[in-house]
Structure formats: structure tokens, C-alpha cells
Amino acid sequence: MPFLAARAAQTPDAPALEFTEERWNYESLNSWAESIAAHLESKVQRGARVAIHLSIQPAYVALIHALARIGAVAVPLNTRLTESEIKWQIEQSQCNFTIHANHSTPQPFILHSAFSIQHLNPDSVQGIFFTSGTTGFPKGAMLTLGNHHASALASADRLPAQKNDRWLLTMPLYHIGGMSIVFRAAIYGIEIVLHSGFDVDKVHHALTDENITHISLVPTMLHRLLEKYPNFKPSPSLRVILLGGAGAPESLVKKALALNLPIALTYGLTEAASQVATSTPEQTRAKPGSVGKPLSGTTVNIVDETGKSLPNGEVGEIVVSGKTVMQGYLHDRPDRFSRSPRRGKPVRSINTGDIGYLDSDGDLWVLTRRTDLIVCGGENIYPEEVERALTSHPAVSEACVVGLPDQAWGQSVAAAVVASETVSEENLIQFLRGLIAGFKIPKQIIFVESLPHTASGKLKRAEVKDLTGFRIALINQTDSESQASRLTNI
């Protein structure tokens, strides 16, 4: 039985969803999802792929459950992408339909046929989530309802849920961090308090006056909250601030702990349905910086460049295995996963590309996120994608994109460009606006005569980062507000 339907049968009157002044219990939310499912079922076959391009709203939550109920595959799209980026993802995932906002009628969304219905493999995939890939193009991670279920149970084992919990959800629903909460709430039988985005004042009010027990934040969000409210004191009901999505600066963690905030540092990835390892608030206070032990059912292995397992204390690549690991990427090899020698069951694993180590207690320390990946305000940006956009300009012969330390956003995007003819930084920024999402556009561009390369021709990004022309963001209030105006709300 679907997660929501099962919960509605058990606790129909329990609060399920709150949005501004509107509220739904599990019975009413389930009825809403049922009506959407009934409307879609006559048009959408089981296994069909449905692209979703919606802002954060209650209808999105009901739609997620409705698509799962009819066996359709949700393909949530980042609403901050350009039209060409969205079109590419729809084509890559071979979506049969798109669902988007209808601004001309009171209906919350409309269904639009993108391609003719095809007979797709009737797999148990719940959704396809685009994440940065090693080629520089986004890769579609295919997650199943089983992945979400295993992730929810493992998370609750580490951070136990209680009957009257209220989880404040401000994360985008196209991110696994937001989507996972939709399923977890239904499995736990707790209430989601939904915001249309991250508004620092509204979040502060909710955390101080609305009996919120849980919230998921990326470091940028917490930074903005503590920057505006340096003496922040939440309601005693708040038990967990799940902090992940990017590496949390040590200074931010220290500031939060000094305020006695219940920070639970977490490490996760889209390919593993969100959380991989999580430190409880008590463990974070005892060992700040560590993301704690892997969740139950998840194995973390540290390997060297040859794939050999390393002992605790030695640094290497983080490999994640377990029931939460995705079925695979779109268009990937079917033989990607190994099998258990005992029972022949699939044992899925993913080489994360992240660098870290397990200490003597088995706690995970993440030292470096994916080598070239830029994480700005919780958004993943792959340099090669931005470089391709830059070099499509006729005046740019070569470009190198890097992430620079940024106190507010974790990293900011910067580019070093070799120009074949005269062009300005502003000209290039305007050129990029129609090609890539705003959060991917470099916040600073410098011009150089040449770029450093290895013997095999690869860019030496580490050397490019050290170029004297770059300005490291030393955030003060004015700088932070300026940056916030250039990046749309997370």
C-alpha cells in the first residue's frame, strides 16, 4: 500500500501538512492525492515518466504521492534552470508528460503531453533526480520507493521521530533533501510545515513561535539565519537542525554550538536517497566536524586509488553501499552493481568521488567534496558545464571555472578566461544568462593570457584558484545582501 494511504488508514485525523493558513490531516491529504491519481491514471501509464516543473506548494506534495500511487516516475526539475537546460533534462529522461503551473485558471497545475506514450520498463523507480556527473553534464539518478523507505527507517533510527513532530520544509522539492521529507513524514506519521522557499524572517518566526521540532538546512541557510539573528534562541520544541548539502564551515558550526543549537551534521548524496551518515546533536557537540557513523543498513568504505579498502584513520575516496543506493543512472550499464556471494541479491554501491576517512570510533570525516564540484548555497555546479557555456562565446578561446571560499555561500563561482578578442566581464555575464541558471554564472571573471595544463592537457584547477586576480569573498552584511540579490532564494 502507498506510504500516504497506509498512514491515512492508521491515523486519518493526524495533522499531515500545513501551508500558511491551510491545513490537511492525513485523510484529507490522502483524498487529494487520490483525486489527482484518478485524474492522471486515465492518461499516464504505469512506468511513464512525468517531468514536474512547479514551485514549492501543497499541490506538489499531493502530486508526489499521486504519481507514486499510479506507478509513474517523477522527474522533478530545478525551477531555477533556463528553458534550454530544462528541455535537455526532459529529453534525456524521455519524459512522456510535463506538469507545470497553470497561471490562467485556479487549477494548481496542468498536464501537458510532451511525447507520445511509450511502453517503458515497468520498474519500481519512483523518481529521476538530476545531479552533477563526472562528464560535466547532469546525470539522472534513478531512486525507488524502496530506496526512500530504507532511508526513512534508517534516519528515524538515528534521529527518532515522535507522534507530534512538525518538520519545517523550506528545501526545494526537486532536491532529494526536500523530496525525502515528503516520504518520511508519511512513513512516520508526522506533520510537514511547508514554506514556499527560504525566507530568513519567516523561518526565524517558525522556529521561535510555531513548535517546530525538525528543520533541514544547508550551511548557507544557517549562515543567513545567524547573521541576521546573532542571538537566535529557538523554541524548546526544536530537537534537530539537520545540516548538510555542503560542507559546513568550522566557524559556522562553532557559532551554532555556542548558541546551544541542536545541530545534526549529515553527509548524503542524491544517489543514496539523501542521508548516508549523520551525527546526532549530542554527538556533534562532542565531536564537532564529524558527520557521525553511517546509518543502519548503509556501509561506508574508504578506498585508495586502486579500489583497495583502507584502515580507519587513512584518507581515501568514500564508497557508499546499501539499500538506499539508487538503481543506477539513466543510460548506465546494467552490470554496474556487484552481487552478494551468499544470496545473489544486488548490493548497490556508489563511488562518491568525495574524500574522507573513518576515525577509530568508526565516525566519518568528509575532507573534500567531489574534487571539482562547486557547492554554492547547497546547489551543485560542475565547472565543465559553465566552461562549455563560456567557450561558446566567439571571443572566448578557453576558460577555467573554479569554486572560491565564500563565508556565506560555501563557495562562489569564478572563471579565468583566455579571450581571442576584446570582451568585458559584464558582456560575458549577460551572454551566460540565456544559457545557464543564474546560480551557475560566475560572480567574478578575470582575463589571462594562458591557463596552466598538465602534460595530458587537463586544466590545473588548483593553480587557477591561486591566481592573484581573484577576490576571495570576505562576507560582511553589505556583501551578503549583494550576493543574496544575485542568487535567487534557495
Which class of the largest domain in CATH terms? Alpha Beta
The CATH topology of the largest domain is Rossmann fold
Identify the CATH homologous superfamily of the largest domain.
ANL, N-terminal domain
Counted by DSSP, the helix tally is 14
Query: What is the CATH architecture descriptor of the largest domain?
Result: 3-Layer(aba) Sandwich
What characterizes the major β-sheet?
A: 8 strands, mixed
Span from first to last CA? 33 Å
Record field, number of beta strands: 26
Query: What's the number of domains?
Result: 2
Which quaternary structure do these chains form? single chain
Shape: globular
Query: Helical amount among residues, as a percent range?
Result: 25-40%
* Strand numbers in spatial order across the main sheet: 2-1-10-9-11-12-13-14
Question: Which descriptors apply to this entry?
Answer:
single chain, 490 residues, alpha/beta, Rossmann fold, GMP Synthetase, Chain A, domain 3, 2 domains, 8-stranded mixed β-sheet, 4-stranded mixed β-sheet, 29% helix, globular, disordered C terminus
Model description:
- It is a single chain.
- With 490 residues, this protein is of the alpha/beta class.
- The chain folds into 2 domains: 366 residues, 3-Layer(aba) Sandwich (Rossmann fold); 113 residues, 2-Layer Sandwich (GMP Synthetase, Chain A, domain 3).
- Helices cover 29% and strands 27% of the residues.
- It is built from 14 helices and 26 strands.
- The strands form 7 sheets. The protein has an 8-stranded mixed β-sheet with strand order 2-1-10-9-11-12-13-14, with helices on both faces. A 4-stranded mixed β-sheet has the order 4-3-5-6, covered by helices on one side. Strands 15-16-20-21 form a 4-stranded antiparallel β-sheet, with no helix packed on it.
- Helix 1 runs antiparallel to helix 2, helix 2 packs across helix 3 and helix 7 crosses helix 8.
- The two termini are 33 Å apart.
- The C terminus is likely disordered.
